[in-house]
Amino acid sequence: MTTATETTGAAAAPGPLASFARFVLCGGGVGVLSSGAVALLAATMPWVLANALITVASTILCTELHARFTFGAGERAGWRQHWQSAGSATAAYVVTCLAMFALHMVQSSPGALTEQAVYLSASGLAGIGRFLVLRLFVFATGRNQGTEEQGDLAIQATSVASPVRRNARRPLTLKGIGGLRTGTELAVAS
Description:
By secondary structure, this protein is mostly helical. The protein contains 6 helices and 4 strands.
């Protein structure tokens, strides 16, 4: 008998620990590269603008990586995921800016190593928050859709002997003319 993965061709969503490890690998890797890019760009423009540009570019890249790899969707991220991811990245941007602002309030001219340590620490804390938001809200529907598909296969497998099968997930639909409801239609498959 074939499994749901073999039948649909989609991989099962990874568990929380595997997702977190993938998140750290993808997001952390892009984050480390981003911190170096921010430092390079900050030499030619204000740090806040450099951080904003790198944050936008890295958010787009990370959202695609997370959709395809981290959370097991295996496909490109849609506009909804990009916008929601951008919202969580905006919060992370604010956290890194506040951390750097606080550093410069404490030390008027900190060294590059100190700036990087503060930036990466703030990014790490913001990253944990982003992981929770992405896993629980942004990419949660992708995991639920996989579960629904597996449920459909189970219903189909158990109802092979039965000539008529009701789709229990599909609600009764009301048909009518204008605002008048004239009856119900039951979803039945044969």
